[in-house]
Amino acid sequence: MSTSEQKKIFVTRRIPPEGQKLLSQADSYNVQQWDSDEQIPRDELIKGVVGAHGLLCLLTDNIDKEVLNAAGPNLKVVSTLSVGFDHLCVEEIKKRGIRVSNTPNVSTEATAELTVALLLTTCRRLPEAREEVKNGGWKTWSPMWLCGAGLSNSTVGIIGLGRIGLAVACRLVPFGVKRFIYTDFQEIPENAKEINAEYVSNEKIAEDSDFVIVNCCLTPETEGLCNKDFFRRMKKTAILINTSRGPVVNQEDLHDALTSGQIAAAGLDVTTPEPIPTDHPLLSLKNCVILPHIGSATLDARNAMSVLTVNNLLKGLAGEPMPCEVKL
Ligand SMILES: O=C(O)C(=O)CO
After folding, report:
1. Distance from the alpha carbon of residue 81 to the mean position of ligand 1, in angstroms
2. Which GO terms fall under molecular function for this chain's record (predicted)?
């Protein structure tokens, strides 16, 4: 079959080796790829997608009306190499009858591990401590020096008790957490009962938690949920962790809360924008630990995500059920 008769797949980045291998075996398709580890420039995305039947994209690609128009009526499947799909203009996609898939389940453990790592790093002040060792600030053992907050006997509030939220909570149980509370769009009794968690309001999460952990998806309802009012309600000793999406937290309000002593510390794996500018005021705060969106960054998880993304795409293009189709 000549490439002009083959269905076109456009891939917006080099993907992890196992997915890449699977893609290379899809020789009945005309696969075109932005062959780089760097993000595809917008104009290349618009050019590359023209006439595509399938689009394999990343969470860094904004798949909006312009991209969909450029792709044209051939486009049948958008397969994103991510759990979150807030970068896809779902309304437009739905209108055009395009199917969408994502990669839930395969990165749950990795993301939960990173969330716990970030929580411990933040509450035990590890970056500050490491800095003191390097800059000679370590003079002697001192009773109150670099004291932080411990998990034992604490109340942990989880915003979003889905797969990842639950996996985080399960990993925190052995640390001796006394009470779990959670909020979500609605109660999730089957998850809550595993950790004996109580469903509460957003206000109560803010007021009662020693640690607030954000694991929800980004929607109009959750955008800016952690804002001035939320921080005002939090305990002065409380710590905020966000490993979901940056815009759930209002960063200006967070900066004010951290500098005025309204809350003790924050750990963010996600920011607005990404990357966060290197001169951003949050980066100068000792009580704010920022990581570059590495929640799912284990080799196994990223390989599994890439395989699932390609499988989703190929099944979708074949008109078959996709392993992880998003119900739009
Ligand atoms: O999968 C996602 O949605 C991420 O944020 C990266 O793992």
Report:
1. 8
2. glyoxylate reductase (NADPH) activity; hydroxypyruvate reductase (NADH) activity; NAD binding
Q: What is the pLDDT of residue 182?
A: 98
Contacts with 117 (C-beta within 8 Å, 6 or more apart), sequence order = none
Q: Letter for the amino acid at 326?
A: V
Q: Is the pLDDT of residue 215 over 80?
A: yes
Phi (first) and psi of residue 156, to 5 degrees: -110, 125
Atom of ligand 1 nearest to the CA of 301: 7
Ligand 1 atom nearest to CA at 245: 5
CB 79 within 8 A of CB 63: no
242 lines ligand 1 (CB under 6 A): no
**Whether the predicted pLDDT of 56 surpasses 90:** yes
Query: What is the crossing angle of helices 108-123 and 126-135, to 10°?
Result: 60
pLDDT for 279 beyond 70: yes
Assessment of whether the complete model's pTM goes beyond 0.95: yes
With H, G, I as helix, E, B as strand and everything else as coil, classify residue 32: strand
Q: What is the DSSP string of 246-289?
A: GGGB-HHHHHHHHHTTSSSEEEES--SSSSPPTT-GGGG-TTEE
Distance between CA atoms of residues 40 and 48, nearest Å = 10
60-118 per-position pLDDT tens digit: 999 999 999 999 999 999 999 999 999 999 999 999 999 999 999 999 999 999 999 99
The reply to whether ligand 1 has any atom less than 6 angstroms from the CB of 87 is no
Q: Which residues make Cβ contacts (< 8 Å) with residue 130, sequence separation at least 6?
A: none
